[in-house]
C-alpha cells in the first residue's frame, strides 16, 4: 500500500537496500520495509552453489578429450560482487532484473576451462584418461590462488572431474590397443604359468630322482654295512675256528707227547721185564743143554720123554738102519687105551 513493501531474506542470502543510489541497509538473513519507488534491492546468494560443466580440451598428442565435472563455489564478498554484477531484483516479481547472476557462473567455468587446458595439454591421451583426479586437484589449487577469483569475491569449494573421455574413434582404438595388450598379457600369463608348471614338474621329477638316488645310496650303504657285518662275523668265526684248531693242535700235540711218553714208559717196562727175564734165565743159559734135558726128563711126563726119544732117534736117523714101531707100541707110548674089540 502506497508503495511500501516488506522484504525478508534467508540466512543464505545477502540483501542490500539502496535509496537514491546510497546503501542504507545490508546483511544476511535480514528483513526490512522499503519504499519501492525510491529503493533498489540487491539479493546475492552466499550459500554454496554447484555448477556442472562439460568442455573439450586437447592433449599433448593433439587428441580431443571431453572433461565432465562439477564446480562448487560460494560468494565471500557480496559487496564486491554487487559492485561488479547486477543482482537487483524486481520488487513485484522477486526476479533478477538482468542475467548477470548467470554470468558469474559462466566466468567461473570459463576460468576453470582455461586452467584445465594448461593441465590437459601437458598430458598424453592414454595418461589423461586416468588422470582425472590429478587434473581436478591441480585445477582446484590454481583456482583458489587465482587473482580473478579474489577480484570476483568468490571462493572455490570443490572442483571435481567425473570423467575424461576421448572421441569414440580414439576410444575404440585405445580399447583395441588395451584389449590387445591384455590379450598379450594373458598369453604371457599362460606362457608363464605353463613354464611354471613345467618347471614345477621338472622339480618334482628331479626330487623324485634325487629321492631314488638317495634310496639307492641308502640301500648301497645298507648292503655295505651288511657285507661289513658278514665279514666281521666271518672273521670272528674264522678266528673261532683258528682258536679251536689251535686248541686241537695243542691237544693233539699233548696227546702225541702223552703217547710218546706212554710208549717210552712201556718200552722202559718192557726193558725192565726183559732184563728181569734175562736175569732169571742167565743161570740156565750157562747150563749144558743135556743137563737141562735130563732135568726136564726127570720132571716130565712119559709122553714128553717118548717125544724126546723120538727126537733123538730122528737126529741120529742116519746111523739107524731099520726102526720098526708097531701100533701097539706107539699106542702104549702115547698112553692111549686100546680100543674095545
Question: What order do the helices and strands come in, and which of them pair?
Answer:
Layout: E1 4-8, E2 13-19, E3 22-28, E4 31-35, E5 39-45, E6 49-58, E7 64-75, H1 78-84, H2 100-120, H3 125-128, H4 132-144, H5 147-152, E8 154-166, H6 168-285, H7 289-299, H8 302-315, H9 327-334
Antiparallel strand pairs: 1-4, 2-3, 2-5, 6-7, 7-8
Helix pairs in contact: 2-4
What would you say this structure looks like, in words?
The protein has 341 residues and is α+β, with helices and mostly antiparallel strands. It contains nine helices and eight strands. It has helices at residues 78-84, 100-120, 125-128, 132-144, 147-152, 168-285, 289-299, 302-315, 327-334; strands spanning 4-8, 13-19, 22-28, 31-35, 39-45, 49-58, 64-75, 154-166. The strands form three sheets. A three-stranded antiparallel β-sheet has the order 3-2-5, covered by helices on one side. A three-stranded antiparallel β-sheet has the order 6-7-8. Strand 6 and strand 7 (64-75) form a beta hairpin. It is rod-shaped.
List keywords for this structure.
about 350 residues, alpha+beta, Tetrahydropterin Synthase, Chain A, three-stranded antiparallel sheet, 8 strands, about 60% helix, about 20% strand
CATH topology (level 3) name of the domain at 4-166 = Tetrahydropterin Synthase, Chain A
Strand residues, percent: 15-25%
- Class of the domain at 4-166 in CATH? Alpha Beta
Low-confidence stretches: none
CATH arch. level architecture of the domain at 4-166: 2-Layer Sandwich
CATH superfamily placement of the domain at 4-166: Band 7 domain
Give the beta-strand count.
Answer: 8
Structural class assignment: alpha+beta
Strand order of the biggest β-sheet: 3-2-5
Could you estimate the helical fraction of the residues in percent? 55-70%
Number of helices: 9
Nearest-integer average pLDDT: 84
Amino acid at each position: 500500500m502506497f508503495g511500501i513493501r516488506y522484504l525478508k531474506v534467508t540466512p543464505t542470502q545477502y540483501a542490500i537496500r539502496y535509496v537514491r543510489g546510497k546503501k542504507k541497509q545490508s546483511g544476511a538473513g535480514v528483513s526490512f520495509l522499503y519504499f519501492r519507488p525510491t529503493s533498489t534491492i540487491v539479493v546475492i546468494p552466499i550459500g554454496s552453489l554447484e555448477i556442472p560443466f562439460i568442455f573439450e580440451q586437447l592433449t599433448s598428442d593433439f587428441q580431443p578429450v571431453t572433461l565432465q565435472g562439477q564446480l562448487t563455489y560460494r560468494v565471500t564478498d557480496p559487496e564486491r560482487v554487487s559492485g561488479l554484477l547486477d543482482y537487483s531484483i524486481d520488487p513485484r516479481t522477486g526476479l533478477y532484473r538482468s542475467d548477470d547472476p548467470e554470468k558469474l557462473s559462466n566466468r567461473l567455468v570459463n576460468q576453470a576451462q582455461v586452467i584445465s587446458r594448461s593441465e590437459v595439454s601437458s598430458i598424453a591421451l592414454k595418461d589423461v584418461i586416468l588422470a582425472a583426479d590429478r587434473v581436478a586437484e591441480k585445477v582446484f589449487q590454481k583456482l583458489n590462488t587465482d587473482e580473478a577469483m579474489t577480484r570476483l569475491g568468490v571462493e572455490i569449494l570443490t572442483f571435481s572431474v567425473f570423467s575424461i573421455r576421448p572421441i569414440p574413434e580414439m576410444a575404440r582404438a585405445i580399447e583395441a590397443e588395451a584389449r590387445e595388450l591384455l590379450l598379450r598379457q594373458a598369453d604371457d600369463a599362460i606362457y608363464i604359468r605353463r613354464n611354471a608348471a613345467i618347471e614345477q614338474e621338472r622339480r618334482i621329477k628331479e626330487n623324485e630322482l634325487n629321492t631314488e638316488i638317495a634310496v639307492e645310496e641308502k640301500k648301497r650303504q645298507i648292503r655295505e654295512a651288511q657285507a661289513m657285518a658278514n665279514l666281521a662275523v666271518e672273521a670272528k668265526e674264522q678266528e673261532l675256528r683258528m682258536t679251536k684248531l689251535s686248541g686241537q693242535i695243542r691237544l693233539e700235540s699233548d696227546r702225541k707227547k702223552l703217547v710218546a711218553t706212554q710208549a717210552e714208559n712201556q718200552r722202559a717196562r718192557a726193558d725192565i721185564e726183559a732184563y728181569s727175564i734175562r736175569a732169571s734165565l742167565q743161570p740156565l743159559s750157562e747150563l749144558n743143554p743135556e743137563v737141562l734135558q735130563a732135568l726136564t726128563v726127570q720132571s716130565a711126563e712119559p709122553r714128553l720123554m717118548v717125544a724126546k726119544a723120538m727126537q733123538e732117534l730122528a737126529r741120529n736117523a742116519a746111523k739107524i738102519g731099520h726102526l720098526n714101531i708097531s701100533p701097539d707100541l706107539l699106542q702104549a707110548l702115547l698112553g692111549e687105551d686100546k680100543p674095545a674089540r
